Amino acid sequence: MHIVCLDLEGVLVPEIWIAFSEVTGIPELKRTTRDEPDYDKLMAFRRNILHEHGLGLPQIQETIAKIDPLPGALEFLNELRSKTQAIIISDTFTEFAMPLMKKLGWPTLFCNSLVVAPDGEIIGHKMRVENSKYSTVKALQSIGFETIGIGDSYNDLAMIQAGKDGFLFRTTEQIRKDYPDIPAFEEYDDLLEAIENAIGL
Fold first, then answer.
1. Is the domain of 107 the same as that of 182?
2. What is the CA radius of gyration of the chain?
């Protein structure tokens, strides 16, 4: 039995931190896992920027409420789920993701959580498990699933490479260059066709 393991940001919805960077006018917040592979380091950097500017979870949630899925993402996800099992495995946080899950039709999501002070300041984060994307696909494989990983960033590569098949979607030129053996796609129709071929449809 197959299960498709999808990244969220950059694959199905816009990058939350980039959207928040544009709203706040703070360019440093555009830094994502496409730029920084070390997620703990990236989050510490983000928390420092937020603290300097007096920003917290409420302001980020205001931005998220206005974010819609990428054009075609909902249709792609619905079509994919009609053909095989699919799960979103993301390094985002429950506190960020719920409005987006509603707009995507409530797919299954495995993600992390934030540590938030009473005044709304983000003071830490709790990863669900170490190396969460890789650990999750290995756990799924251990109970009989053949996984197909899809992502766009450095933190998706272990999930992609650990599976039966894996694809990059709307990734950077640098990642394409560094990992030429991983098929890369720009359009949902092409990605769906590749998934169908991988699972034998």
1. yes
2. 17
Asked if residue 29 and residue 92 are part of one domain, the reply reads no
Q: What is the CATH number of the domain that holds 192?
A: 3.40.50.1000
The 3-class secondary structure across the chain, one letter per residue, is CEEEEECCECCCECCHHHHHHHHHCCHHHHCCCCCCCCHHHHHHHHHHHHHHHCCCHHHHHHHHCCCCCCCCHHHHHHHHHCCCEEEEEEEEEHHHHHHHHHHCCCCCEEEEEEEECCCCCEEEEECCCCCHHHHHHHHHHHCCCEEEEEECCHHHHHHHHHCCEEEEECCCHHHHHHCCCCCEECCHHHHHHHHHHHHCC
Q: Is the pTM of this model over 0.85?
A: yes
Catalytically active residues are 7, 9
* Domain membership flag for residue 90: yes
pLDDT by residue for the chain (201 residues), tens digit each?
Answer: 999 999 999 999 999 999 999 999 999 998 877 777 788 888 899 999 999 999 999 999 999 999 999 999 999 999 999 999 999 999 899 999 999 999 999 999 999 999 999 999 999 999 888 888 999 999 999 999 999 999 999 889 999 999 989 999 999 999 999 999 999 999 999 999 999 999 987
The residue behind tokens 């560094």 is 178
- 32 and 8 share one domain: no
